[in-house]
């Protein structure tokens, strides 16, 4: 049997081909996706899409880690999101820090904190309305954005509560928001309805009304999850902030009145026919057995983070 000899030059060629293939696999692995078309498009265009800054106020409670974990999976899937988590606390917590680290989101997140002042009833307003959560936290996030975002690059701000349910497709729609505009879409399971939605003009390009059943007289009778805002509007309107001095349900109108009008809203989500976000709420955690343990000086989660 004759001996097969491999020349050094052939070895070199084989090594080069192997390295080229390895580089291609590595590069494609970073930018490809086997999901639906809209998600594949987002990965292919990740470097040119506007950054979406999702602002999430949060506070300590039994379901906090579970709800933030659910949201973190969205950020792991979507390449152009930056998560701003603002804790209602005097200091940032190891729980949130650890969650971001385990999800690999340290470089695509910002962890802030500010404590909500003691609750009070708004004088001259609805006497049964207690000071709403999230005002201090969202305003701190807006301050951070105004001081840190590159104003030369198009970006979008979305107020993303931690107990809602979001489709990844919503963020593909959000990426279509034009500079100087506010994008809007339907929200499911809110305001006593199966869906709250904008009504559009015949050409489907302009918002002409809303189907809200709860306080439809509001300037913008929509949920916080129903819109996202081009960042340049916040730069041009530094007075745009959330406020305690408004009635219940008017926080959305309070921020939007500084930035846009109904006529300038940009309809998205298949001309506001697709529901891509739901106003879900986690059932209050029942811990009666845990309370019985505590009376005995015991805990089921001793030494564990739940």
Automatic annotation (TrEMBL):
One of its GO terms (cellular component) is Golgi membrane. The record marks 196 as: Interaction with galactose moiety of substrate glycoprotein. It is a single-pass type II membrane protein. Pathway: Protein modification; protein glycosylation. One of its GO terms (biological process) is chondroitin sulfate proteoglycan biosynthetic process. InterPro entries: Glyco_trans_43, Nucleotide-diphossugar_trans. It is found in: Golgi apparatus membrane. Mn(2+) binds at residue 163. GO terms for molecular function: galactosylgalactosylxylosylprotein 3-beta-glucuronosyltransferase activity; metal ion binding. Its cofactor is Mn(2+). Its EC number is 2.4.1.135. It catalyses: 3-O-(beta-D-galactosyl-(1->3)-beta-D-galactosyl-(1->4)-beta-D-xylosyl)-L-seryl-[protein] + UDP-alpha-D-glucuronate = 3-O-(beta-D-GlcA-(1->3)-beta-D-Gal-(1->3)-beta-D-Gal-(1->4)-beta-D-Xyl)-L-seryl-[protein] + UDP + H(+). Keywords: Glycoprotein, Golgi apparatus, Manganese, Membrane, Metal-binding, Signal-anchor, Transferase, Transmembrane, Transmembrane helix. The active site is at residue 252. It comes from the Eukaryota. UDP-alpha-D-glucuronate binds at residues 57-59, 88, 133, 138, 161-163, 279-281. Belongs to the glycosyltransferase 43 family. This is Galactosylgalactosylxylosylprotein 3-beta-glucuronosyltransferase.
């Amino acid at each position: 049997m004759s001996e097969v000899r491999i020349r050094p030059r052939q070895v070199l060629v084989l090594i080069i081909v192997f390295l080229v293939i390895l580089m291609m696999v590595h590069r494609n692995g970073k930018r490809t996706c086997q999901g639906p078309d809209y998600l594949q498009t987002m990965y292919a265009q990740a470097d040119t899409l506007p950054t979406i800054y999702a602002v999430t106020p949060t506070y300590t409670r039994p379901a906090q880690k579970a709800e933030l974990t659910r949201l973190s999976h969205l950020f792991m899937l979507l390449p152009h999101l930056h998560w701003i988590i603002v804790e209602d606390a005097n200091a940032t917590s190891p729980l949130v820090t650890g969650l971001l680290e385990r999800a690999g989101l340290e470089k695509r997140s910002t962890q802030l904190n500010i404590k909500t002042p003691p609750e009070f009833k708004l004088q001259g307003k609805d006497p049964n309305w207690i000071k709403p959560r999230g005002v201090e936290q969202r305003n701190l996030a807006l301050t951070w954005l105004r001081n840190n975002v590159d104003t030369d690059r198009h970006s979008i701000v979305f107020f993303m509560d931690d107990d809602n349910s979001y489709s990844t497709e919503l963020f593909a729609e959000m990426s279509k928001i034009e500079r100087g505009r506010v994008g809007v879409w339907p929200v499911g399971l809110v305001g006593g309805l199966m869906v709250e939605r904008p009504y559009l003009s015949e050409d489907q390009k302009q918002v002409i009304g809303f189907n809200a059943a709860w306080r439809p007289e509001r300037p913008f009778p929509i949920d916080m999850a129903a819109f996202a805002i081009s960042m340049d509007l916040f730069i041009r309107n530094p007075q745009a902030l959330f406020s305690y001095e408004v009635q219940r349900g008017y926080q959305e109108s309070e921020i939007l009145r500084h930035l846009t009008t109904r006529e300038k809203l940009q309809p998205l989500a298949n001309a506001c026919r697709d529901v891509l976000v739901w106003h879900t709420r986690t059932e209050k955690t029942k811990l009666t057995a845990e309370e019985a343990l505590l009376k005995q000086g015991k805990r089921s989660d001793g030494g564990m983070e739940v």
